[in-house]
Amino acid sequence: MKKLIYAGGIFTSFLCFSQDTEPKINASFFDGIVAAGYADHGAFINFTGPNISFKNKNLKLMLGMLPSLRIKQDRSEVTRNSAMMPTLGAGATVIYRKFALQIPVYYNTKTASLDGAWKAGIGLGYSFR
Q: What predicted TM-score, i.e. pTM, was given to this entire model?
């Protein structure tokens, strides 16, 4: 019980005495960032989803999920997927002031002719917060 009270006191002191200029680590569900870019011979538009972020002054680093709309022409000969597909990616985002640089990864499932694989991309975005 003493350890729990001690840990609670330390946590409370961090909350009460922290300053905005100190680095902070946070978790959130949405950060107001939209990005567009290129991945696996196609484009994507995404919004940052659940993530863990580290912020220091004007720089913010995020690792998290990226709910996306992938735009890619399917060149299969027999059956084809839609050119626009909702998908979930994951990746890192670096935000400086209001501008974002994103490195997402998306998983392409196994098909009759290709093995499943992770594909990386790159994108630019804007933070509305």
A: 0.72
Which among 35, 40, 22 is positioned nearest to 92, based on CA atoms? 35
Among candidate residues 89, 33, 90, 88, the one with its CA nearest the CA of residue 60: 33
**pLDDT value of residue 129:** 80
> Residue-wise over 30-64: b if at least 16 C-beta within 10 A, else e?
ebebebbbebbebbbebebbebebebeeeebebeb
Rounded distance between C-alpha atoms, residue 35 and residue 33, angstroms: 7
Closest C-alpha among 66, 45, 42, 62 to residue 54: 62
Collect all residues with Cβ–Cβ distance below 8 Å to 129 and sequence separation of at least 6: 31, 32, 33
Which candidate, 114, 127, 45, places its Cα nearest to that of 74?
114
How far does the chain reach from its first CA to its final CA, in angstroms?
A: 40
